[in-house]
Fold each of these.
Amino acid sequence: MGDLYILNTRCKLTDKIRETFEKAGFKVKVSTDSGVSDENLKGAKGFTAICIFVNKCIKPEQVEILKENGNKLILHCSAGFDNSPTEELKAAGISAARVPSYSPGSIAEYAVTQIMALAKNTHMSYVMTKKADFEITNMQCLLLENKTCGVIGTGLIGKKCAMKISGLVEKVLCFDVYPDNEWIKTIPNASYADMDTVLRNSDFISIHVPLLPQTHHLINEEAFAKMKNDVVLVNTSRGEIVHIPSLIKALEAKKLWGVALDVFEGEKKYIFHDKSKAGFRDDPDLARLAQFEHVILSSHIAFYTDQAVDQITAKTIENYMGFVGKGTKDEKAFIC
């Protein structure tokens, strides 16, 4: 019946992927509903592959629908693949592929941008001056050049972040369970340290770790207790890394200067959707978080640049071509 069924991403990625596949002669259908309901998945009947982005999640019990559909491949348009049930897919004989890396500089730049925004109160100034309020009593900023930035996780994105922030701060402290001791030598003011040292000595902390059992709620009450006062925390990795109730407690205690979360636990029903009418009425923790002036919540957009969209699209069609035997299959991109 068809080649690719796209679960609508509600961003330009959908159009780019559709146009690229159709130009290559493949038949594509985009779901009218952006959710991952059973009915929406049934719309993929007869299609070889289903394309899924980070704001979608296929549940284990829905794999049976994919089998009945005759679907053979899940194409993740992301590096992460925790939003599909790998073991259940494997048992059903359905393959899955991902985009291992796409424009790490895009996400790193966003992290650095949010550090700058919070340190310089840019977000506050923007809101105030729109109302002709030019008061500066509470607008004192932080200087970066005499500060230390902690980078938790030095994969491709973490490395880019450390490199970009190194010219702005005095010192960069990095933590990774698998330190790259050759790479760290390329940044004169950077060094590896253990997690406790990074937490205790950093004025800014940027998180770049994958979501794994050992990183789930990595930033919890114990971690906040170790941090310096007036620390700036940025998370562009996975929402579940930061424990929201612990974060709220730290904010209420005025432990942090500011927080920027491009990802947050429970984000999937919000990101890429306009929820302004309902607000956070069903999520009291998020409602409380949004009340803090020095908290920036964004819509999982750190990745969203022209280069990233191009690279995600290119790797997604490469994965499909490799799967159907029309190109070289990149085994490293295939999860199962």
Amino acid sequence: PSLTMGSDSYGECASTNMEVFADSMDVDTYQQEAGLSTCGSQYESATGFAFAHPPPQDQQNNAKGSCDASSCSTSSFVSAIQDGDANMEPQQFPATPTKMPASSEPTNGFLTPQPEYYDTCNHKLYPPHPHTPWPNITTQLKVLDLRGSQRLTDRGLLQLGDLNALEVAKLDNCHSIQGRGLLVLSNSSHLHTLSLANCRRITDEAIVNISHLFSITALTLDGCRCLTDRSLAAISDLCQLQKLDLSQCDLITNSGLNFLRDLQYLEELSLGWCRNVSDDGIKILASQPMRCESLKILRIARCQISDEGIESLGKLTNLRELNLNGCSNVSSAALGNTLQRLPKLEVLDASYCPGILAKFRIFGFLNCVTLASAIPTCRTLRTF
């Protein structure tokens, strides 16, 4: 039996499988060797089917000269039609063309990507079939906790893809993160808590990369020793920020605290072990607008604070908690005068402050309280 197919059937069956035989197409070689013109003949749609041998010689002779136009044929037929091949047994063509297996569609509804293919008849390159990409599970993630992932790098963070629904991100002790990796949070418009504690290699670039996330209300940068005043300038854009931890950020200076002026909702501020923050920085902080009403917790342990700076804290009338651990230059008299102007104070840590006398009485501060000396054994006052 011979194989004959019109042009309509060619477009239906052969187009989707053209790429399988595109590499073996050699129209000129086949016509020269076989002397055939195949347009409108049984060879017209050969590229779409799994042929191994041509039709008998008598059918080839009938097909010669039937059409002057060139058509699609495969160079694999050249060796099959040459005379003298005694080792090849004749093989009959099927009456019905055999199509190449079509790509199966997964049961989950997502199409598998199709390769592009080349139509040698029309000399056109067709694009792959459209398909729907697989969903990314991170798009629905709300809490990301990677604390202690010391080998996690910026490149690894960027592999997470879109984190559009993220609300909490904890990256504490990820020592290999520097800054560029936080670009993965660029579209996290619902993020309200970000913790980068002890990320020792974090740079100002990281803070700049998240400074547009106005939804952030709590930011922890404890132990990020590479941050400078440039980071504070970027943080000033986080207008909804309520909690800011800058403990052990040694490169932050007094002038950098000026950038916190626009954080009107700031309730908790930690500046412990910031050794470049002194009395001038406390004065700047206490004189900022809305600071006396909003700030409730202030931690300035081990800062270079003296009596001058302590007296400035008297403006923060809404203060509930004050940590002066290790402020060795603070005297008992200056502290007593300041505490009398802080009627809402509930927690005071004055441990390791040798300038404070062993006992003195403060009238008007929660009725009458005896404040013990902050000697090295223990001295933390908690009154509720």
Amino acid sequence: MLCIYLYFLLEKELFQRGFKKYAIISDASSTGVSLHSDPTKDPNTGRRIHITLEVPWSADKVLQQLGRTHRSNQTTPPKYVFIVSPVAGEERFIWSISERLSSLTAITQGDRNAAKTSHLTTKLVNSTMGLKAVQQLILCLAKLSVMPFRCPFEETKLNIVKKQLCAVEFLDERNGEFFPRKKTNVTVNRFFNRLLGCNIFSQAIIIKLFYLVMDYMVTVAMRKKLFDVGIIDLQFPAGTLAKVVISSSFPCDSEAIVTIHEIEVDFGISWERIIPIMRKRGSIPHFVTIEGSENQQLIYIFKMDGVLYGCSPNDTKHFNISADFLKNRKPLSFADGMVLWEHQYNEMENFFCIHHYLDGKCHNTCKEGSRKQELVIISGDLNSIWNIICKRTNTSNVNIVRLKTDEGFIVGAIVNPCVGQIIEKDFQLRWK
């Protein structure tokens, strides 16, 4: 027994020193083991990615397990990944864990987003926004409201889902049409409790649609400054590069430093960097084109979680692809796709938008499909210059963001590039 214990200690030490990249622990060994990145004790200070294969049916037990990689004096907070099935019961349990993690890190670190989970990080469902998303989803399925996005599911599948919602008393069917049930008082908890009465197929579709509706509503609310998520992590698609072009520092009244970072984000992805992503997806690359008067736009089609998506060399953001879009479009060969990919990637560096690239004309303010985007982030002692920022942006609701660049993480207030130039002139006049 002592030999096994010493063997486990040796394995833990090899992981903490960086000789082994993976550590597998069971529920029995989830107490008393510290695997966090402690710079004072362990050479391996890389960020931990904590993957939970089977979530225990106790929030306290989950927090106990997650604490193995999340301790004080750590270099970076871990990233949590929960492996769950698209079933309403499991989804609701993960939401409660996410909320408890957010509350815990708000107390310990003053930032409710400090402990990151790749599953439902910002989607705090049991809120007013979640209730509005549920109500909007029911209206969209009853066709009393238009879906604000392209639905990734066929009408036949949606009809099956609607009949399942009729069975759990959220919709009524009359003469082949569906209507919201008037007497049902819809709440988030009641909605997901009753989803357990639907089949697994319908639950997965409803949860997917709920995420899409809520993402859209949160995005619109954030644009209108009506939704606060604390420090916002600017996360871009895989392959996106954020490069600091210029950093200008100014000594402010509090004898601290204020820095204006001009950042260039390149959404394009070269052929050399897209090849490993294609291989990871496994399927044979499928390319189609959109014809323009001067150039062709190449679109790479791939399937993820049973849904078709597309992306372009100049913009790695994924967008939904419908079956109608692929009709009468002849697929390109791998060689032709490679040539057109490299051409579009290189040429889009000189164009403001995709319309200018395709047809040679567009208004100067259009940025759709632009390969590069400029960001301005002001970091440092924001308290001393907050009045200046609010005056120039004409609002007190300025977003605080966290962005990973080629020079490391930057946390600060994000402003429009044009406003950033005006603020920089104010700083130059004030602190010469």
Amino acid sequence: MSTMKTSTPLKGLQFSIMGLGSTAYPHFCGFAHSIKTLMATNGATELCPLAEGDELSGEEETFKAWTQGVIQASCKEFCIADNNKMKEKLQASLLEDNTEWDVDRFRVVAAPWAFSKGQGHDACKGLSMAHKRNVLPCKLKMKKNLQAPYSDRKTILVSLDTGGTKDLLYLPGDHVAIFPCNNPKLVSEILQLQTDNTDTWRQSIRVQFKDASTKEWKPLKRLPDCTLYEAFHRYLDISTTPSQKLLKHLTAFAGDAHAKNQLHALANVILHLYCISKAHNYNPSKGSQSRHQQFLRHLLNDITISNY
């Protein structure tokens, strides 16, 4: 390592880094920044600025934006900026699973079938399709918060009964993803804003996207056919503080002028707070991230209430 520091063995090498982490912990994307410093110290040149993917907020959007930047910079660097076909192929290969919302690209229709009476939704099959992983059912035996009662942070110890299945192989150090349901009360409150007719909630729906090449409408595999209630109950994130981009999408659909203005105001508040945190080098350490999120949620709620 000392030899590398006194020379430039990576001179001529170009790189771009996207760090993955969580702002719930201190030193967010610290390893990515360390690698960037090490690469630059040894003569490598950064092709695109380092991107930070936060698992709590917009990680996929950050990746897509970073990927687009890398493609454009690479095409320019290797003199293929004028080759549109080459750029299209590169973008298609890296973004073939792009599901960014567009009003002309996605639609919700009635599913060509319905659940029969007494038939339940196969949540594990649906989640496996949505996340491209083999999701297995387990029963919760126990959960315990390991942090002190006065702490702003939570470390949850979970004990699961796998039912003796041999498909779930887990060793110490492995990561296990758990897919809990959204709060039924919150789901009902959201759906009641659309209609009080609970029969509508139980109607089977299908999300479709328009194929860019054939212009045909095809099922979106990331969200399986299910009822409207199941979509909000099991598949959609309805508890995370909404991003500015999501609020702008909702603004476009708002028919009421007052509601449109409120959504626009909320989007600007989120952008303003984001700029402040960046300008002051906000560091979410020692549990301050939890307090920051609580402050943001209360602020957005107060703004909404005060204007209705």
